[in-house]
Amino acid sequence: MASSTSLTLLFFPFFLLTLSHAATFNVVNQCSYTVWAAWAATGNVGGGKQLDKGQTWTVTVNAGTTGGRIWPRTGCSFDANGNGKCQTGDCGKLACTSYGSPPNTLAEFALNQYQNLDFNDISLVQGFNVPMDFRSTSSDCSMDIQCTADVVGKCPSALKVTGGCDDPCTIFKTAQYCCPSGSSCEPTTYSKFFKSLCPNAFSYPDDYVNTSFTCPGGSNYQVTFCP
Q: From which domain of life does this come (predicted)?
């Protein structure tokens, strides 16, 4: 029979999660053009919404979500059933339940993880399509990550695509850029380009220098397109 101590240890992680409420993400479009916001997370949950200039969308994500992302899509067209295609960030439908295709600027998160912390980042590993600000709106966390440079305008010719600046893995499909699971990667000319413009964003899969930020579990956030 389990001792009272072992039972306490067994239920401690669950107890931590019950202390934290679902996280609220306010997604704001400050771009001069329409953006189709999307989110998706582990468990094939997610959604999407058309945001015209100045509009806001509120997303609620369950405590304990081990991985998720919010991203902008551009150049989208959907039918009455919500099926369609986007020029960048496409997932095949308005309400995404899977991650979008490159190029897309990503706000990534994992909630209530190690020591009940949220882990957050902006990633350019799948390229860039829209400038982004990702910050906490909770009083006990001052996190603010930005990638607001003119990445598309300065994009190397080899990565230029309609509506964005693609990632080199998608373009070249080599281990040097794709960093297969179980291997390690070094910075490349292209990752250094992204890093020079957005130093606090992931520029390649093994970029862990000033790229991951934490907040206490239960924090709330805002993701702004074109801040």
A: Eukaryota
